């Protein structure tokens, strides 16, 4: 009887991971930051309210992160010092389901179907409500140049221009 033996050699090469980090928000209300090179958790943030954190989005070319939770709060954090938030704001009391960052603006999709355009630099609402409460919960938001797409539980993708 012949025997076949297979030997699998797997190499995990890392390229340019020095100083890189991976962040994760979870349903237990924690934000965790991991060092990719060392594969260790380097920091974690627990919101003072036990409400689960839902979504997060990084801000391009800055060390900042915006997370949204079930209370409808947006929390702006500096990834280098996450123990004390830079800013906390509540636009609506409806849970936040999706976030999208582009050009100093954050689109915030809520469970009640409302999508809000927020400028995190000066705390202004740019277009109060992009969508209304007549839409299912906003599950995803994508922004490409001057066009914004939202998707919701009803299966429709909606397109908005110049937002």
Structural notes for this entry:
- By secondary structure, the protein is mostly beta strands.
- The chain has a domain at 21-131: 7 Propeller (Methylamine Dehydrogenase, Chain H), CATH 2.130.10.10.
- It is built from no helices and 14 strands.
- It has strands at residues 21-25, 30-35, 40-46, 53-58, 64-69, 73-78, 87-90, 96-102, 105-110, 115-119, 124-131, 138-144, 147-152, 157-161.
- The strands form four sheets. A four-stranded antiparallel β-sheet has the order 4-5-6-7, with no helix packed on it. A four-stranded antiparallel β-sheet has the order 8-9-10-11, with no helix packed on it. Strands 1-2-3 form a three-stranded antiparallel β-sheet, with no helix packed on it.
- A hairpin with a 4-residue loop joins strand 1 (21-25) and strand 2 (30-35).
- This is Anaphase-promoting complex subunit 4 WD40 domain-containing protein.
What is the N-to-C succession of helices and strands?
EEEEEEEEEEEEEE
Q: Could you say which structural class the secondary elements and strand pairing correspond to?
A: mainly beta
Largest sheet: 4 strands, antiparallel
CATH superfamily of the domain at 21-131: YVTN repeat-like/Quinoprotein amine dehydrogenase
The coarse overall form would be: globular
By DSSP (H or I, 4+ residues per run), the number of helices equals 0
Radius of gyration: 19 Å
Low-confidence stretches: none
CATH topology of the domain at 21-131, which one?
Methylamine Dehydrogenase, Chain H
CATH class value of the domain at 21-131: Mainly Beta
Architecture of the domain at 21-131, CATH level 2? 7 Propeller
* Assembly level: single chain
Q: How many beta strands in the DSSP annotation?
A: 14
Indicate the mean pLDDT: 77
